[in-house]
TrEMBL record:
Role in flagellar biosynthesis. Belongs to the FliQ/MopD/SpaQ family. The keyword Membrane applies. This is Flagellar biosynthetic protein FliQ. InterPro entries: Bac_export_3, FliQ. It is a multi-pass membrane protein. It is found in: Cell membrane; Bacterial flagellum basal body. Keywords: Bacterial flagellum, Cell membrane, Cell projection, Cilium, Flagellum, Membrane, Transmembrane, Transmembrane helix.
């Protein structure tokens, strides 16, 4: 395997992983930020107030974006498996 091919493959791997994780991480971070602002304004420091909405957001995001995420991961895997002969 050539070094430029390995670097390109690693780049594709990281970008695909980032693209797949971004909807869940982005939305839970946004909800966490909104809950933190709400806690600062109201001075309510309850731990379940931060955990439960983020958990629900992550579950709903996986339900809604799950097929798209699985399709992207499958496309990357198929591309990887079909390019195995070109690696050697």
């Amino acid at each position: 395997m050539h070094s430029d091919y390995a670097l390109n493959l690693m780049s594709d791997l990281f970008w695909t992983g980032l693209l797949i994780c971004m909807p869940v991480l982005g939305l839970t971070m946004l909800i966490g930020l909104m809950i933190s602002v709400f806690q600062v304004v109201t001075q309510i420091q309850e731990m379940s107030l931060t955990f439960v909405p983020k958990l629900i957001t992550a579950a709903l995001t996986l339900i809604i974006a799950g097929p798209w995420m699985l399709r992207k991961l499958t496309q990357f895997t198929v591309k990887l498996w079909t390019n195995i002969p070109a690696m050697f």
